[in-house]
Amino acid sequence: MSENDLIRIFDTTMRDGEQSPGCSMNLVEKLTLARQLERLGVDVIEAGFPIASDGDFESVCAVAAAVRESVICGLARTSSEDIERAARALESAANPRIHTFIATSDIHMEHKLRMSREQVLEQVDRAVRQARGYCDDVEFSAEDATRSDADFLVQVFTVASEAGATTLNVPDTVGYTLPEEFSELIRLLRDRVPGAEKLVFAVHCHNDLGLAVANSLAAVRAGARQVECTVNGIGERAGNTSMEEVVMAVKTRRDSFAGLDTRIRTAEIYPASRMLSSIIGVAVQPNKAIVGDNAFAHEAGIHQDGVLKAPITYEIMTPQSIGRPSNELVMGKHSGRHAFRERLLELGFDLEGEEFQLAFRRFKDLADKKKTIFNEDIEAIVADTTIDRDERFAVKEVSVLSGTFAEPTATVELVIDGEAKKGSALGVGPVDAVFKVVAELTETKSDLLRFHVTAITGGMDALGEVSVTVSEDGRRVIGHGADPDIIVASAKAYVHALNKLVWHKLRRGVSEPKGI
Ligand code: KIV
Ligand code: ZN
Predict the structure, then answer these.
(1) Which of the residues 137, 142, 239, 391 could staple to 235 if both were Cys, CB 3.0 to 4.6 A apart?
(2) Which residue has the higher pLDDT, 109 or 282?
(3) Which residue among 16, 105, 236 is best mutated to probe the pocket of ligand 1, counting the most ligand atoms within 8 A of its Cβ?
């Protein structure tokens, strides 16, 4: 494939994706995801916004040190502090990129930046030159490009390119554009920005009108060669372009995207999707294209009959092509270490040493209680066992008394900073009682915003998964826990959320809350 036929996949799950409510990830989670993105073959990983907080800075540093194949990118506004901080965070990257941006629409310049066009042009020139002083790979984005004056946009991109930017990004920041309009804009920019043939034009679409993927594909037809996207389409408001949808559209409709391709190893798509869902505790909708539970389920009799005779009748791609493991190979109490490790790898988890042993022990314990272990059960075990050495709190024992004759009472033992602590409390229900003890023992004062319990797989012996949304000082986090006993799962979920709050507090940085 020639450079011109390559559609570069720029993944911003850890930056724009993380900006969606409840999708924040800690350092260990970001590293785990970054390794999966590298296995997936994404060209660029936008690892964070280093000036936003110390946590973001550390995450970009860690991802930059761990990932060797993909380009690692850090976001920066045009201020020199932002760019310097991004450059410092990327110091150990094998392939660093600084991504700097400023808004170019009259609406943003007047109401948000309070800057004239001339001032914005000066900022672009200065910021890109400064970034080029640190690395050769510099991307410039004109925020709100689709609502910007086209002549001004040409001027902005010309300045950015003359200052040394190698990738010019055209964001549809508010998800406003339409496919034909967007492809015209890309054509216009490629015609009018001097030296366009040596530059990579990128697009970054938001999904406010449900058009992010359509707009990105229209831009590719018009010559854009980098698509910015996220796993499962997470991101600000209605989300970003969904990586799996763009990649599979190009692959499945090769006839229509003649000669073009991505470097994505599509068999890693499903593991990446599941991994992200289990990290952030947000499942994709069942009918989500490519990775939703129903994406390959055939319910109607006529469809089932057709698929059994020849899958091509109703399947335009195979589940295997995106790495969906079959649930047919059932795991149970007779499955050994080897089978368990294989299934973990299929699901995108490469656990080693202590973590693997712990997960295997939990798998065996569950298999003693539950006849069939499904992939979802294994994902829950992994989410529950991945060791975060920074975690202050862990659940040791939980016991409750409740029902129609008893006043709900809970006794909980936690390990706090390595020391066991026990307490009891009454509550309006068993979960309330457990949460009261946990709050008392951890000396935390957070608000519980949402409590959600689901059976991970069918059957009376299903594993229960609890997700809680908790907030403290305006910071919202989601915690999850799984256990055959939903009260224990609730305690684990609550403690998981409190650990996330501690993590954010420890790394609270220069300009909270983060995001742009
Ligand atoms: O949506 C947007 O405009 C952005 C830019 C920083 C690229 O996220
Ligand atoms: Zn965005």
Answers:
(1) 239
(2) 109
(3) 16
Residue intervals in the chain for CATH 3.20.20.70: 3-280
What pLDDT, in 10s, does the model give residues 11-69? 999 999 998 877 888 898 899 999 999 999 999 999 999 999 998 999 999 999 999 99
Q: Please give the distance, rounded to the nearest whole angstrom, from the Cα atom of residue 124 to the centre of ligand 1.
A: 15
The sign of the dihedral angle between the CA atoms of 318, 224, 75, 24 is: negative
Instruction: Determine the residue of 100, 173, 234 to mutate for testing ligand 1's pocket, defined as the one with the most ligand atoms within 8 A of the Cβ atom.
Output: 173
Most confident listed range (206-215, 280-289, 341-350, 488-497)? 206-215
Ligand 1: which of 46, 77, 101 to mutate, judged by most atoms within 8 Å of the beta carbon?
101
Q: What is the pTM of this model?
A: 0.79
Bridging pattern class, strands 226-229 and 8-11: parallel
Instruction: For residue 299, report the distance from its CA to the centre of ligand 2, in Å.
Output: 37
CA 270 from chain center: how many Å?
Answer: 13
**Separation CA 185–CA 177 (nearest Å):** 10
State in Å: Cα 425 to ligand 1 middle: 47
Q: Whose alpha carbon is nearest atom 5 of ligand 1?
A: 143
Give the closest residue (by CA) to ligand 1 atom 8.
Answer: 16
Residue showing tokens 């990128």: 202
Q: Quick one: which ligand is closest to 174's CA?
A: 1
Secondary structure of residue 247 in the 3-state scheme: helix
Dist. CA 326–CA 347, nearest whole Å: 11
What integer is the mean pLDDT of 204-229?
Answer: 98
* Three-class SS state of 20: coil
* pLDDT score, position 425: 96
C-alpha of residue 141 to centroid of ligand 2, in Å = 10
Q: Which atom of ligand 1 is nearest to the CA of 240?
A: 1
507 pLDDT exceeds 70? no
Query: 3-280 falls under which CATH superfamily?
Result: Aldolase class I (3.20.20.70)
The helix or strand, by DSSP H or E, that contains position 98, with its residue range, turns out to be: strand 96-103
Residue 7: which of 311, 279, 219 has the closest Cα? 219
Give the distance (Å) from ligand 1 centre to CA of residue 171.
6
Domain with CATH 3.30.160.270 in the chain: 393-507
- What is the CATH superfamily name and number for domain 393-507? Alpha-isopropylmalate synthase LeuA, regulatory domain (3.30.160.270)
| pLDDT tops 50 at residue 408 | yes
